[in-house]
């Protein structure tokens, strides 16, 4: 898989906040195997999407949803046929004070951290869960919305908020004790189908394709990190 010295490349990858911790490790392995340098920019998928639309010089976009890569494709900003599902995200309820459970979430009355649903797919999923459980009115004025799911995680980790709805992958990456979190049933929110796409402005299409292929070979690592596997999910 190693590219020749004459083909040595640098890739700029825009990575959704939930995938950043795992991707950092995977990028190091890819660099070692391929000789390609990987530079990472991480943030909420919505913010990264806006940067791309306005010309940010990324080669690949690893989103936390399928919608934004699909929109970029419709705008003619992607390499045709490159849009691929690389993981299925899982939302989890994190309670720093008591063992987390469905009952604990249903009875929650305090402040709760979630990602901004306008920017982050995990925030939209969290909002859907709260609506499903009839908690929206009860928590009015008590929701602390982070610009990304990573910031929502930080609100809880810092002790500023006692609990929240965040990415399971972040909890696993940071070593949060399993008793403190409860994976929310995936039927409670729209699928967090995470898609990647190669951007048409890339000057390194071969290296970009190699990185996407490498990611799709990491099923075991993805499962260990708290993701469901794409499996038979069809590309939309």
Automatic annotation (TrEMBL):
One matching Pfam family: SBP_bac_11
Keyword terms of this UniProt record: Metal-binding, Signal
Keyword Repressor: no
InterPro entries: AvModA-like_subst-bd (IPR044084), ModA (IPR005950), ModA/WtpA (IPR050682)
Top-level taxon of the source organism: Bacteria
Family: Belongs to the bacterial solute-binding protein ModA family.
Protein name: Molybdate ABC transporter substrate-binding protein
Organism expressing this protein natively: Ferrimonas gelatinilytica
């Amino acid at each position: 898989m190693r590219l020749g010295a004459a083909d040595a490349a640098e890739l700029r990858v825009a990575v959704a906040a939930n995938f950043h911790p795992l991707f950092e490790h995977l990028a190091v392995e890819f660099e070692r195997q391929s000789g390609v340098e990987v530079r990472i920019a991480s943030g909420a998928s919505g913010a990264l999407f806006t940067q791309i639309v306005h010309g940010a010089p990324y080669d690949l976009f690893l989103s936390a949803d399928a919608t934004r890569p699909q929109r970029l494709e419709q705008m003619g900003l992607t390499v045709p046929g490159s849009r691929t599902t690389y993981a299925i995200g899982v939302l989890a309820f994190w309670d720093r004070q008591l063992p987390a459970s469905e009952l604990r979430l249903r009875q929650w009355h305090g402040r709760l951290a979630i990602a901004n649903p306008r920017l982050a797919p995990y925030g939209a999923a969290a909002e859907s869960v709260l609506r499903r459980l009839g908690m929206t009115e009860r928590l009015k004025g008590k929701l602390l919305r982070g610009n990304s799911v990573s910031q929502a995680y930080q609100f809880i980790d810092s002790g500023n908020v006692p609990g929240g709805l965040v990415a399971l992958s972040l909890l696993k990456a940071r070593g949060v004790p399993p008793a403190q979190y409860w994976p929310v049933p995936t039927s409670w929110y729209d699928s967090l189908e995470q898609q990647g796409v190669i951007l048409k402005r890339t000057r390194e299409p071969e290296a970009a394709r190699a990185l996407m292929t490498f990611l799709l070979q990491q099923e075991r690592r993805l499962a260990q990190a708290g993701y469901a596997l794409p499996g038979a999910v069809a590309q939309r």
